């Protein structure tokens, strides 16, 4: 240990050895800082038992490709959560032990001027928990000093999250999933409901954040159908990492007065299997995507087969107008496949119109948006 004290202290090396000796296997995605953790993990014998894969998606294009979209802010808890979940999903493909994903995104001192503070966010994702950490870093420190502080904190947090060791790392958020939630990250179709609901009138969404328009959409659907509605939040996304437990719990907490289904199915053909004979409440933007072959690996045949499965399962859609390209788009404006259009009923603008969007709300609440 003494020969390596400039890089790592003995306690951290002991943690790494304990990790290598455990059943844990993981994938790390690290950007902006913290990459030296990899060399430390590899320097201790037994690393091949722990480390399944690792990437450093440093370029914006690399980060975008990994996450399935441009992050709204690179050095943020949201990006760290997505990186951790991407790591966990890859670990499921590669490993056969106790699996984890670690995602870290950092803003360290550089040779150019930067907006915002120097800091690091990282998250450890397992089948049972999402644990989030944040480390403010002194701008007066050198990059080497910041990097050392960060890697020591990351190893410390791995010791706590995976081995139950005491830690000095700054745990800023945690959600320990109950047994009822853990299948949501599994491969088998699964649904769980907060509250009592029959699953027959469903408003799907990401609810990031939930807003008045969501409640008004469901109220309009209830008025038209005479049924009781519920929200549906899926942890699965076809093009992006799964939603983590902490984010799901935060969004669930923000929704008041409504039953909420949590599911792990992204496509409507798959949702239909979970909710046969259901009526889904959608905006025209979502409805248009259901009819586009690009969401079926550019296969018209796969799209048509999915639509036929919707018919077979007795699915209906209530379609509400949405603003797109500065005009109000209704069901009549969509060029849907005929068999899909047969399942749709339009909600008149006189019954519902609300042009608010979650994207607008996130942009308004983003740090610096009011400067």
Explain this structure to me?
- By secondary structure, this protein is an alpha/beta fold.
- Helices cover 36% and strands 22% of the residues.
- The protein has 13 helices and 15 strands.
- A hairpin with a 2-residue loop joins strand 13 (322-324) and strand 14 (327-329).
- The radius of gyration is 23 Å and the shape is elongated.
How does the overall form come out from the CA principal axes?
Answer: elongated
**How many H/I helices?**
13
Low-confidence runs (pLDDT<50, min 5 residues)? Answer: 1-7
**SSE order:** HEHHEHHEEEHEEEHEHEHEHHEEEHEH
Amino-to-carboxy terminus distance: 49 Å
- Count of individual beta strands: 15
The assembly state of the depicted protein chains is single chain
Which class of secondary structure composition applies to the elements? alpha/beta
Strand order of the largest sheet: 7-10-9-8-11-12-15
- Helical content class: 25-40%
Mean of residue pLDDT values: 92
Sheet-strand content, in percent, reads 15-25%
Q: How many strands, what sense, and barrel or not for the largest sheet?
A: 7 strands, mixed
Rg for CA atoms = 23 Å
């Amino acid at each position: 240990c003494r020969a390596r004290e400039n890089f790592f202290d003995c306690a951290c090396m002991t943690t790494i050895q304990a990790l290598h000796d455990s059943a844990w296997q993981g994938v790390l995605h690290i950007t902006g800082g913290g990459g030296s953790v990899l060399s430390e993990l590899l320097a201790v014998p037994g690393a091949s038992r722990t480390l399944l894969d690792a990437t450093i998606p440093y370029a914006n294009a690399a980060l975008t490709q990994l996450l399935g979209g441009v992050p709204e802010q690179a050095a943020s808890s949201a990006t760290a959560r997505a990186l951790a979940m991407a790591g966990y999903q890859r670990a499921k493909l590669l490993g056969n032990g106790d699996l984890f994903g670690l995602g870290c995104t950092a803003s360290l001192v550089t040779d150019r001027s930067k907006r915002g503070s120097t800091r690091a966010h990282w998250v450890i994702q397992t089948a049972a928990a999402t644990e989030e950490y944040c480390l403010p870093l002194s701008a007066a420190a050198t990059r080497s000093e910041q990097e050392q502080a960060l890697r020591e904190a990351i190893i410390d947090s791995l010791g706590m999250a995976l081995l139950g060791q005491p830690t000095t790392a700054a745990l800023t958020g945690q959600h320990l999933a109950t047994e009822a939630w853990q299948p949501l990250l599994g491969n088998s179709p699964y649904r769980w409901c907060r509250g009592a609901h029959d699953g027959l009138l469903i408003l799907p969404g990401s609810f990031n954040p939930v807003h008045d328009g969501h409640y008004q959409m469901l109220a309009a659907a209830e008025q038209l159908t005479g049924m009781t509605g519920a929200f549906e939040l899926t942890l699965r996304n076809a093009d992006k990492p799964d939603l983590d437990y902490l984010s799901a719990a935060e969004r669930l907490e923000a929704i008041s007065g409504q039953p909420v289904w949590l599911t792990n199915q992204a496509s409507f053909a798959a949702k239909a299997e979970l909710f046969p004979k259901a009526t889904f409440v959608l905006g025209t933007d979502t409805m248009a995507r259901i009819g586009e072959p690009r969401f079926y690996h550019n296969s018209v045949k796969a799209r048509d087969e999915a639509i036929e499965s919707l018919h077979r399962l007795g699915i209906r859609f209530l379609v509400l107008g949405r603003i797109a390209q500065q005009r109000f788009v209704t069901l009549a404006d969509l060029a849907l496949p005929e068999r899909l259009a047969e399942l749709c009923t339009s909600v008149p603008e006189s019954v519902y119109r609300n042009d608010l969007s979650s994207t607008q709300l996130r942009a308004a609440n983003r740090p610096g948006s009011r400067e």
